Amino acid sequence: MQSRQRVLVTEVIPIPRPTVQGLLEVFRDAFRGPFKVERLRYSRGDAGVVVERLMPVEEGDPSSEFLTAYQMVKQHADLEIQEPADSPLESIAKAIQSLTSRRLKFTMFVAESRHAVRAWTGRDLRIEDIWQIPVVEDPEAHDRGIFVCGSSSGTMVQDIEAAVFCRME
């Protein structure tokens, strides 16, 4: 059986009433949806709950309320393109250094696939284990590279403020 490729998407669900009951209704609705909730975030005083879920790629609709990691990087983040370094790990380290020099916390990698990243870095090297940061797969990110993302406010897709693009050569 062929497993369907999934992509992490984010959405904000507005809270209809500023009460505990209203917040609980939003939580119930989020988990009732057809796609698995990976993470959600609510901070007191927010007008909505941020929900990240895994959605099959074929279900995605560019005009929908969902925002993928690649869309966030390309449309909303400050994007820097880095010159290739001597090695993949050096490229990633320089990208992280660029983010931290702007006082941003390194939050995630965004790439077309983990397989492509592992082929670039070495078959047994799992960068997500080295840095304890997730590799978010997004089939739209087919630029033959990896985006090293950072934020000053949080670790969710919606929080990406800047990204450094490292070409996988």
Beta-strand portion reads 25-35%
CATH secondary-structure class of the largest domain? Alpha Beta
CATH architecture assignment name of the largest domain: 2-Layer Sandwich
Number of individual domains: 2
CATH topology-level fold name of the largest domain: hypothetical protein PF0899 fold
Q: Summarize the biggest pleated sheet.
A: 5 strands, mixed
Overall morphology: globular
Given as residue ranges, the uncertain stretches (5+ residues, pLDDT < 50) are: none
The chain-level mean pLDDT equals: 87
Please compute the radius of gyration using only Cα atoms: 17 Å
Distance between the termini: 33 Å
Count of discrete alpha- or pi-helical segments spanning 4 or more residues: 5
Q: Give the tally of β-strands.
A: 9
Strand order of the largest sheet: 5-9-8-6-7
